[in-house]
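As promised in the previous annual report, we have extended the structural survey to additional targets. Below is the entry for PRELI/MSF1 domain-containing protein.
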Amino acid sequence: MVKFYKSSYYYEYSWPIVTLAWFLRYPNPYSKHVVSVDVVDRYVDNQGCLRTTRLILKDGKLPKWGAKLFKISQSYILEDSIVNLESNEMHTFIRNLDHTKVMKVVENQTYSVSHNNSCQTFVNVTAQIKSSFGWGFTNKIEKFGVIKFSKNLINSRAGMTHVLKVLRDNGWAKHNNMFV
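The corresponding structure token record, generated without further manual editing, is:
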């Protein structure tokens, strides 16, 4: 069985600055679990879209019942993104590369200019959480995954907001017309 998570929200910043902040979001005070971020590939495709693949190493904490079963403390995450300047959209596809039998998380995000306010960015998030572990633990692991994903998304948003404020307060984005 697969569990699904869906959420949407707005950043009170324009799409160009949110897109920039997304690439600059590590490190921040809410991402102490991120050990490293490496760009694996980056290029502009035939349609003029910026495509980036990054490998992220994260520390993780398991619940007490999980810590007894699994000796997992780190996980590699592969993050693909496509930035389309013509449509003012960024699509991200994020998934764990290891421990996928225990729990596989596949996250998709779309960042776009708000239809109501061009100074806001709309974010749509979907995630699939699946465990193939068996032994009667599958449902418990997937439920844990959905709860953990929801909590992590709150921290992720706080981290992005922190980076957005740093960019705003340092005037970098203002001098580059990104708060228009």
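The first strand starts at residue 2 and ends at 11. The chain has one domain: 2-175. These points will be discussed at the next consortium meeting with the crystallography subgroup.
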